[in-house]
Amino acid sequence: MDISQVAKSRYRERISGANAVIETTLGTIEIELFIRQCPEACWNFINLAEGRQITKKNGPFFDGMIFHRVLRDTMIMSGCPNGDGMGGPGYRFAAEFDASLKHDEEGILSMANDGSPQSQGSQFCLWLEPAPHLDGRHCVFGKVIKCIDVVRNISHQPLNFADCPTPDIAIKSVRIIRKRTLLGRVLNYLILSENTDT
Length: 198
Description:
Blueprint: E1 17-24, E2 27-33, H1 39-49, E3 69-71, E4 75-78, E5 108-111, E6 124-127, E7 140-146, H2 148-155, E8 171-179, H3 182-192
Antiparallel strand pairs: 1-2, 1-8, 2-7, 3-4, 4-6, 5-6, 5-7
């Protein structure tokens, strides 16, 4: 299969919200995903995390990936399969922007891109300080709700010349916690068998 011709998965479920629990080699981080405001970015993250999205890597996409760029007390970045900031899942998609979501506080999760909002893939950043210069340029799609100290600790580790922690700090697993209303659970049950698009 030519991976360059694989499209971004359109798989979604009817849920009212979702959290991502990221287990790293330095501890666990829990993030609320803003799935209502930014469904494209959130479902891209979920489908990659759960191994539903077709990529060159089989299985859960983020498992084993390192934090390849870190700025002390500012930001940590992961989601690159190459480990150097140059890789992605094999496709790109456009950013979503919600006026209520900004890089205005500690713990914001946003998509990385190569300078164009049309170039999102799998890389993401967790911010430890406001970054208003990125509003309208990088999609905000979540926020750390538990264990921000783990993000701070990662940002304090020794770095090499490329701003990559040494030794490596890696994602061990990403677990998605779904939130469903009663109506959402019923609707999801009814459509689940029809939602076979990968």
